[in-house]
Amino acid sequence: MSFIEQDYAVWVEQDQKQLHPLQHASRHTNPLVIERAEGVYLYTVDGRKILDGMAGLWNVNIGYGNTELPEVAREQMLRLPFTSNFAGMTNLPSIQLAEKLSGFAYADLKTTAFTSGGSESNETAFKTARYYWKRLGKPEKTKIIARNAAYHGISMAATSATGIARYHTMFGPQIPGFLHIPNPNPHRYEGDIRDGETVGQAAARALEEAILREGPETVAAFIAEPIQGVGGVIVPPDDYFPRVRQICDQYEVLFISDEVITGFGRTGKMFALGHWGVQPDILSFAKGITSGYIPLGGIQINDAIRDAIWNAPEPESWMHGYTYSGHATACAVGLRNVEIIEREGLVENSRVLGEQLLKGLEALTEFPQVVVARGKGLLCAIEIVKDKTSRTPDLPTTNALMGAAMNAGLRTRAVGNALAFSPPLTITPAEVDSIVQTMGDVLVKHNSQ
């Protein structure tokens, strides 16, 4: 396909007939029109080659251009593209993927409910938590505790759990029963720290205090991303999640781990809570389960929650699900995708090349705008500030650097005052070096202006 500027103008005009997510229309007047992709690279209709340092939306784990997944989808579509998983029906791909996932992420999680994406997964997790406590005769346990700068999705309940104000502004009021506490940002902790406390201990105490303030008898669950993505790629201190698990157990609060971004190898482990030896009661997943080749998500639950559902009387059935729950084609693709991640050693590649990427990004802290680099596996970020003395976040410069990087052939994403890097897990050492080199060149040029 050849690029003709006249065609581009027509495409842009036609493109304005769809609403694009999470941005003002004024920012979408000159969009990149992506024609194809291969490996870690995107190719535009006008011939530009861009290293996708974000793997789409944190999700193209096996890279672009894989030929197995389209063939799996084709074969499944010809055999059975879709059938309802309601009303006593099922299909082999959903059975097989549920079996593959049983105990796969965490040994205590053996039962899966499928959705079409992360927002649906977290919506399902919240409803399941409330359902569980009602089944146990504690219907007042309905509140969900989340964290500041959390991102949990776009549906109403998921938006209410999200701790970023601009996602709420024009859609309120939010659903009652959702509250937020400080997140365990080692560099910018917003809560109080007592003498002798670490940030991790203080942030965990904030959870305990919130539970006690609200009343343990009213709190259903605590939800957390193991590493906060949209909130700035915030990696918690090592003492945080073990204490969180203890607090949840002590006060009978379910722990929901939102691993929509961090699952399926992104952080150098198959699932990120494994870095801290902690298991949740409910796991939310999506994105990497199919590497973005087709929509799929879900939750996994522990045996106690499963038994509450299975043993319920008919009037208390788990009346939840979606048209595409257990979608046959999506599950077939998901199963093969997980097999590819295992077969190709992509979790280990994420760990090793994540260390290389983080080391390279740490070298960029020589620039006056870059105060810190952080991350685990191939989920990293650099934080941009006005100066290193005040450490004042500099959002305009963050956005300007993101645009300059794109113009230089590198796609990153501004998440607050941080630039995130989340490339496909198939990335090579040379391509990691390219990310660091390009970002360094952008910073040099920025500082010379």
List keywords for this structure.
single chain, 449 residues, alpha/beta, Aspartate Aminotransferase, domain 1, Aspartate Aminotransferase, domain 2, 2 domains, 7-stranded mixed sheet, 4-stranded mixed sheet, 13 helices, 15 strands, 16% strand
Strand and helix layout:
Elements: H1 5-15, E1 34-38, E2 41-44, E3 49-52, H2 55-58, H3 68-79, H4 92-101, E4 109-115, H5 118-135, E5 143-147, H6 156-161, E6 178-181, H7 199-214, E7 219-224, H8 240-250, E8 254-258, E9 282-285, E10 297-302, H9 303-310, H10 328-343, H11 346-363, E11 370-376, E12 379-384, H12 395-407, E13 410-411, E14 413-415, E15 418-421, H13 429-448
Parallel strand pairs: 3-13, 5-6, 5-7, 7-8, 8-9
Antiparallel strand pairs: 1-2, 2-3, 4-10, 9-10, 11-12, 12-15, 14-15
Helix pairs in contact: 3-10, 4-10, 7-8, 11-13
**Multimeric organization:** single chain
Radius of gyration: 22 Å
In the CATH hierarchy, the architecture of the largest domain is 3-Layer(aba) Sandwich
CATH topology of the largest domain: Aspartate Aminotransferase, domain 2
Number of strands: 15
Structural class: alpha/beta
| Secondary-structure element series | HEEEHHHEHEHEHEHEEEHHHEEHEEEH
What is the total domain count?
A: 2
Strand arrangement within the widest β-sheet reads 4-10-9-8-7-5-6
What is the strand content?
15-25%
Low-pLDDT segments: none
The helix count comes to 13
- Amino-to-carboxy terminus distance: 38 Å
Average pLDDT level: 96
Per the principal axes of the C-alpha atoms, what is the gross shape? globular
